[in-house]
Write a structure and sequence with these properties.
Blueprint: H1 6-37, H2 41-51, H3 63-69, H4 74-86, E1 90-94, E2 102-106, H5 108-133, H6 139-147
Antiparallel strand pairs: 1-2
Length: 161
Amino acid sequence: MTATDPALTALAQGWCALSLLHGRIEAHIERALQAGHGLSVREYSLLDVLSRQHSGVGGMLQMKQVAEAVVLSQSATTRLVTRLEDRGLLARYLCPTDRRGIYTNVSEAGLKLLEEARPTNDAALREALDEAARNPELEPLVRVVESLKVPSWNRLLPAHQ
């Protein structure tokens, strides 16, 4: 039998609680988005991330950055982009200054769907957090999430490389 470091055990338990909270929130939002808009959480996230990019200097995201923002591998992100492009929600185009680069933009139909889905996403998030807050083990994590003041989603992404 080996001795277990109490600090590592607490860290592992904290990680498990955070993972549980994330899973519950994601599943709740997934059900709401699928039922109301035919979107998965990943599809919604991709539309949201791409809708926030701009055409100014440093405003267009590379696929690697998009993949990091939606927490998928680059190949899974490419498949997701293709699915949404096939549905007419996204369009790809060549970078005007580097013909090897490909950008992705949300179409008008994608922006409309995103606008319609955003209140569903926000309400489902609120419901999931309220439900989790009733669990004494998850309540401290919910308080932390609610207290976060993240200035801008794109500051969480690595800089252009």
